Amino acid sequence: MANPTPLDPVALFSSIAALVVGPTLAPVIGAYAVILLAATVGAGWSLSRRDPDAKKTSVLLFLLLVDGTALFLTAGLAEVVRAWLGWETTPWLLAPIALGIGLIGDEWPAVGRSVAAFIGNQLGRWAERRGDQR
Amino acid sequence: MNLETFLQWASIVVAVVGIWACACRLNVMSKKTTPVLVRGQFVLLLAGFASAGLGIFWPAGVGLLLLMLSVIGFLLLGARRWRHGPPRDVRTDHAPLDSGALHHVSGGRK
Q1: Model-level pTM?
Q2: A45 inside 8 A of chain B by CB
Q3: pLDDT in tens, B79-96
Q4: Among A55, A59, A95, A130, which is most buried by a count of CB atoms within 10 Å?
Q5: How far is CA A91 from CA A17, A74, A87, B58, in A?
Q6: Angle between helical axes of A94-104 and A59-85 (0-180°, round to 10)
Q7: ipTM above 0.90, yes or no
């Protein structure tokens, strides 16, 4: 049975890009185009969600920061998820991860606090379990 | 610079201006004050301009197609407001206008 054609946005944009930049560059250009698009959409939602008073940076700076963060982090995060879950390929993950980075916007400190609280919670539970076993 | 290169650069500049305009509007909205459909309209337009700006990587017409799809999405998301004719805030024959509408007509926040 032939492999099913991938339908994720990265495959779609790579196929379209292949018509212009050739098959060698298309996977890279297509992937980064999807990352930029998804991050921009996420940034748009993030911009429109918060109170105007809570917005600290200018609009263009905000978009540049979010898109830049997505360009640098998305591929690495997708690789971490791939390794963690043991999947073979993860190009379809790029779009949701970039969208997520866009949705977070400039609220990384809050995300950091949540992650720290989660890790602290897990460590506390682990310590409790160890205490019960003794 | 040939015409094709000029048009590609012009498209990028126009796309950046469009992205900036949409982002500025999104920037003055918030979850508390703006319905999700209106916010979605401008996010769609933003995505359309971003697609058009990335048009140098697509074959001719793909960026334009994505932009047109986003504009259609924009219109569809606003269709509910227009179901019974022009909405109140775009009509000139509606009286009396409240202070919010007058504020809007006179050119927005000063």
Answers
A1: 0.75
A2: yes
A3: 988 888 888 878 877 666
A4: A95
A5: 15, 10, 11, 19
A6: 140
A7: no
